[in-house]
Description:
189 residues, alpha/beta
Amino acid sequence: MVVSQPLDRVGILLAGGRSVRFGEDKAFYRSSAEAPTWVEKTAAVLLPLCNRVVISANHEQLTRMKQLFANESRIQVVEDLPGLTDYGPIGGLYAAITQIGTAASFLILAVDYPFMTTKILAQLAATPNCYATTPSQSHYLIAHLPDFQRAIEPLIQRREHRVRLLMENLATVPLAFPPSAAFTNQNKK
């Protein structure tokens, strides 16, 4: 599938979670010795749709993450901001937006979705200000958002951690998808 790249869409890949329930760092997990890491898989599905991808990583991941993507000029790794390391996805989104600046739109994906496809993300990219839903769940970390810096700052100031509130602040709408393995959030091996 050939997808034209927009001039000003940035992918944000959230990879800095602690992976407590998973038992090891999901970002660097491989299903076999030859398989790519989950962060490589999820970055690969974002790249055809974005002019660049920013990976939000925690301090412990930073060196390894930068080494992993050293030869990919369109991927930038940013570190969680001091004082916000336990904010979960909101902290990762805030770290990304404050360190990369503005763009026309942002395609959001969490490393927890290693079976996501470019085809599904292309449907999101074609719809402004939306997040994915399936019949059983809202997937706030699979989204296409406008510039959200002004909408996320009050959440950070109030020490609010819920991504749903960011979606409400932006008046983000759900985009329905049928059930699919692509939407399985991998919390356990």
